[in-house]
Amino acid sequence: MKAIIRTKAGKALSTMAVQELPTAHLQPHQIKVKMVSSRINPVDVDLMKGMPFLKYKKPQIGGIDGAGEVVAVGAAVQAFMPGDQVFFYRKFSDIGTWAEEITVNASDVAKIPQNISVTEAGGIALPLLTAYDALLQLKAQPGEKILIHGAAGGVGFQATQLAIKMGLEVIATAGEQDIDLLQKAGVNTIINYKTQDFLREVAPQSIDYVLDTVGGEVLKKSLALKPKKVVSVHYVDTSKMIKTGVKLPGLLKWIMKMMMSKFSRLAKKHEVELIGQVTGADGDLLQQVSTEVNQMDFTVKLSKTLTLNQIAKQGMSQQDVGKVILFQ
Predict the structure, then answer these.
(1) Which of 194, 100, 198, 192 is nearest to 146 (CA)?
(2) Domain membership flag for residue 297
(3) Domain encompassing residue 322
(4) pLDDT digits over 6-46, tens only?
(5) Cβ neighbours of 131 (radius 10 Å)
(6) Does the predicted model carry a pTM greater than 0.85?
């Protein structure tokens, strides 16, 4: 089978190459999936560049999420059968989805919603799980207000649609090119981040929650709005990293905590509960949000695509982040 592998440590996916590999052996707790699609996520860049606390296989297949069709199940698997269309997100310690056929732990897998295609599911698996997990941590109630930064992005657009289904009033930041998309999704208040400062458009304490997908100054300014809670994908809570399947060395945990301390201090100053969003592999949670999506008029934002043949000829780069790899 063809697979996209990490030939060595390197920046921005520059060392990825397409090679022929044997199909992995199916373990009792796993399912074998004929891959259809997989998103190139920002975290894939970091994982393929090299993390000192990860043990990489030789060869190491890239990719952490995706979707496809079940072709075989292990002896201990009861929730899935051949022919099921599924999507999944894996742990950092178990990466490897960019191949024509893969094995994956059944506990990381969910059946895709019936109202989206398997190709679309592979393009949103990680963003959808992240968005749902983040919103659940807020424990928001219908009628409350949430400001979502990057509301038309990978995580942001899934979160926007889910928040509206949960009965929340969404205020969105986005670029002008995405205003129509967000209006069609049901957002009434949209702040153009290129021409408007959300800190001037939103009065302090007028919103209940913020979902931050941008980080940096945007996170700082969001804390200054004094909502009840802010959940951020860019605020690293080292105590939650075990969800990704890795145990951080003590020194690295200390360094990361120091890097995040400026946000922690601001949160304490403004009396805001700051939540770091760390997404772990969780098939049950992914199945929950799949069920939610199945009950919605859900929109999957179109993504640019790449084929294995294209990657074999031209390689991969930072510019490919956000694109969806097609395996068929």
Answers:
(1) 198
(2) no
(3) 2-123+303-326
(4) 988 877 898 999 999 998 899 999 999 999 999 999 999 98
(5) 28
(6) yes
